[in-house]
Amino acid sequence: MIDFEFYTPTRVFFGKDTHRKVGEIIKDYGFKKVLFHYGGGSIKRTGLYDQVVKSLSSNGIDFVELGGVQPNPKLSLVKAGVELCKREKIDMILAVGGGSVIDSAKVMAISALADNDPWDFVTGKAKPEKALPVGTVLTLAASGSEMSSSAVITKEDEQLKRGFNSDFNRPLFSIMNPELTYTVDKFQTGCGIVDIMMHTLERYFTTTRDVDLTDRLAEGLLKAVIRAGEIAIRNPEDYEARATLMWAGSLSHNGLTGAGRDSFLRCHQIEHEISGAYDFVAHGAGLAIVFPAWAKYVYRHNVEKFCQYAVRVWNMEMNFENPEETALKGILATEDYFKSLGMPVRLSELNIGDEKFEEMADKCTFYGKRILSGYVPLGKKEIMEILELCR
Amino acid sequence: MIDFEFYTPTRVFFGKDTHRKVGEIIKDYGFKKVLFHYGGGSIKRTGLYDQVVKSLSSNGIDFVELGGVQPNPKLSLVKAGVELCKREKIDMILAVGGGSVIDSAKVMAISALADNDPWDFVTGKAKPEKALPVGTVLTLAASGSEMSSSAVITKEDEQLKRGFNSDFNRPLFSIMNPELTYTVDKFQTGCGIVDIMMHTLERYFTTTRDVDLTDRLAEGLLKAVIRAGEIAIRNPEDYEARATLMWAGSLSHNGLTGAGRDSFLRCHQIEHEISGAYDFVAHGAGLAIVFPAWAKYVYRHNVEKFCQYAVRVWNMEMNFENPEETALKGILATEDYFKSLGMPVRLSELNIGDEKFEEMADKCTFYGKRILSGYVPLGKKEIMEILELCR
């Protein structure tokens, strides 16, 4: 185990009808002027928009609105939001939606109290020193952004998708009602399940030894998600399955599964290049393609860990004579599971060829300035070979 | 799963030498006048006292001292601490020690900003509304107090041991260096392991259904603790085992293993009566006696859950023809494990007879005013029957 800091200050309100308390909660905190941030029309279609407005109004909370967040949230909207926050003297941001809306709110919250361009924070050129408080009403179990220190933003003119971590990105509170995810369609549910699993899996495959406790927590979480995922795909209104996915989504990315280990979200980094270059690729779908390719590329470097994964998470029987077979079976079981969720597992299924592989590998290595660390270090050459396995 | 709130704001600094940063950390928070609270002489013997003083002094932190916390921390010392805080205009309390020191600091911190008698907060007669911030340097992996909302205090003149929960009990930060637990002797290490396991087990055995995710996290934590416990008892200076126990101790009692389920620490409540009446009984040792008795008393009410425990945590093979056998095997495995740690598993080993059973059952039910809820409700009669099984 390596040294670590653990800090998850977000207050979670989890359960049925919790979203109806949003105005009350904000009032209890004492905020006066809220930016109500959201995405496309879905919260209007489902009635959530009206419920939030009603709760805010009936608690006397003054608010202004900024909708229009798209998947892979855009820098231009963040900039517009920052201006709005400054002009309207906003004292908290309420993000109602999934990871894209929350990430957009986080970068706004940091930039609203600074003079920097928001992109400076995303790229690490500037360090956040404070932020407006962010509260969330979560509508999608996937990104874990509702408790995480991460935010990912896309600079649309350069097709650059970049993320950064900061404790100032941790929401003050998050309201999680699993019922709000009943309307998430099968494909987006599948994407979310993959994203949740990947937040844990990327940390599970670490070079740090003696991490038994966190490994076992991760394995338990994965087993619960795999089971709940099957149920939620079959029956979108199964409360228990939706609740499991929602809570697992938060725990996968709030620091718990990464405590005490060296870990780096290398599949996420590679996927960011795919969905950065091809805007129609959903993040979870991209990850479902990248992980099996990455795993097949690296598993021989630590066959034992992949065997542990196969045996403990997928209930495979260990082949002591041929551990590689067991390791590979775990990877293939993961790939099959992703398929069963309706996810693509090859780029060809999305009609993506190798035209942009070199460009993606260049961008992913910051044009030769970084190597993806952890497990097996990945430079341009290795990333291109993994992308080749994604075809 | 039932609705829940989750709130674990404590910032954790985990790892080697972290205790040497205590002054720096307090300085970063901006506190000026600290109450340095500790127990008996052990931190002076190990040199920790000097290291803390050095770190505080070299960072220009003004502090006053209050040592002398005993196991089962006493109300009288809390009162003395409250007076000291008020007189010296203390702005934070630094608790250096195990759960007793931290619990003592917590109740002081709440009472220092109120006019109530501290016992009012412990008994629920008064509700905490604010508290001085508490920071900890942990020296014992056991109580989980370093991240928990709980505090337990003993009113010595009435031999009453009572606990209460409040978010104001959550420490602001906790410094956890597993090396500081190398000097904990075998018996206290065993007590700590039992306490950690019990914080998870008491929540594991719940009446709430569909709690797969939290069950699996609990099972993973228990497996890791069982393994690390064996190692730490054999080799007290095994860093990885000590680190696993320390981190598991925090996670067992910070809310993670109780999220979304009805749970009540009924064995803790019964044990409080034992160590309240017999001050020489260590809390963990008392729990090692109570749990097997409680489990044997109730397992037939939910054989399936006890089977799950036996199969998943103790790797027992399920006896489908006779599930009760499997359930009982899991309980006996736990009892055997406690024994292997050097714990007593019967009151007779401590030369305690049945003289005070009725008095303990009366106190535990608040003289008939409460029933221990959850799983199987326990009144005076049931508690006395469980105590009988403890003999």
Quick recap:
Two copies of one chain form a homodimer. Chain A is of the alpha/beta class.
Could you characterize the architecture of this molecule?
The structure is a homodimer of 391-residue chains. Chain A has two domains: 170 residues, Rossmann fold (3-Layer(aba) Sandwich); 205 residues, Up-down Bundle (Dehydroquinate synthase-like, alpha domain). Helix content of chain A is 49%, strand content 13%. Chain A is built from 15 helices and eight strands. In chain A, helix 10 crosses helix 11. The model of chain A has no long low-confidence stretch (mean pLDDT 96). Chains A and B meet through strand 1, helix 8 and helix 9 of A and strand 1, helix 8 and helix 9 of B.
Strand order of the largest sheet of chain A: 1-8-5-4-2-3
| Structure classification of chain A | alpha/beta
User: In CATH terms, what is the fold-level topology of the largest domain in chain A?
Assistant: Dehydroquinate synthase-like, alpha domain
Number of domains of chain A: 2
Helix-strand blueprint:
Two copies of one chain form a homodimer.
Chain A: E1 4-14, H1 22-29, E2 33-38, H2 42-45, H3 48-58, E3 62-66, H4 75-88, E4 92-97, H5 99-111, H6 118-123, E5 134-138, E6 150-155, E7 160-165, E8 173-176, H7 186-204, H8 212-234, H9 239-253, H10 266-277, H11 283-298, H12 303-314, H13 323-340, H14 357-364, H15 380-390
Parallel strand pairs in A: 1-8, 2-3, 2-4, 4-5, 5-8
Antiparallel strand pairs in A: 6-7
Descriptive tags:
homodimer, 391 residues, alpha/beta, Rossmann fold, Dehydroquinate synthase-like, alpha domain, 2 domains, six-stranded parallel sheet, two-stranded antiparallel ribbon, 15 helices, 8 strands
